[in-house]
Amino acid sequence: MTKQELVDSIAKKAELSKKDAGEALDAFIETVKGVLKKGDKLALTGFGTFSVTARKARKGRNPRTNETITIKAAKVPKFTAGKGLKDAVAGTKKTK
Question: What's the rounded mean pLDDT across residues 26-46?
Answer without folding.
Answer: 96
